[in-house]
Design a protein that fits this description.
Chain lengths: 111, 111
Amino acid sequence: MREGSSLGEFEQLVLLAVLQLDGDAYAPGIRIAIEDAGSRRVTRGALYSTLDRLETKRYLQWRPDPNPPSRAGAPRRKFEVTPTGLAALRRSLAAVTALTQGLERKLGAAR
Amino acid sequence: MREGSSLGEFEQLVLLAVLQLDGDAYAPGIRIAIEDAGSRRVTRGALYSTLDRLETKRYLQWRPDPNPPSRAGAPRRKFEVTPTGLAALRRSLAAVTALTQGLERKLGAAR
DNA sequence: GACTATTGTCTACATTGTAGACTCAAGGTT
DNA sequence: AACCTTGAGTCTACAATGTAGACAATAGTC
């Protein structure tokens, strides 16, 4: 990994979703949040790969579900954005925001 | 290329820069616009690869500089975002926008 | 015990991002 | 004329990111 590497498009969405779910960010919910926001499909493989890569970069960290309900499946992982991750996300969004200025008309309702 | 493929992070920035430069979008200027907005370096190789890939997807098109000044170098290519490209950009930004709602505080000055 | 549902892991491959060397032409310098 | 510099663009190779789908493990239900 290069130093100060910027975030990919999907990585941005994952970090945003984790922030949105604040304190309740488990993989299945993250997946749904992104699908809803983007009107697109997200496979579990894609999501977990990205979560793991963000963890490697120290942009995310997780703990086991502190309150594991009795249900099927492996114990859930509860994700949290690190300060470093938040900083990277800010930097990444700043570029988009700057280049979006003045294009509200052309970009239509998206902004 | 898959159908309805979404835009990468750098692809978004390139399309935005072309829109910003409206009618005056040549590769060197696009490069500067992105560097300024993102406070980062953009090599020519990275930019031309992406421009060509966006052209292949029909998100961008170009014509030779209609008013070629007498100067060094190959004739410049003047880029333009196609309607399809604009639609793809809107879709792509919509996801970020949706997931950003309510996070203004946490994301700080970036929004 | 078999079946189903939920979570996560793993592997392979496709797409996107990046760096740097190379080419080519116009104009200035000597 | 020969050379250098500058400004465009091309090409190749590789790294990082995105995606799909098969597999594993566990808890409840029947």
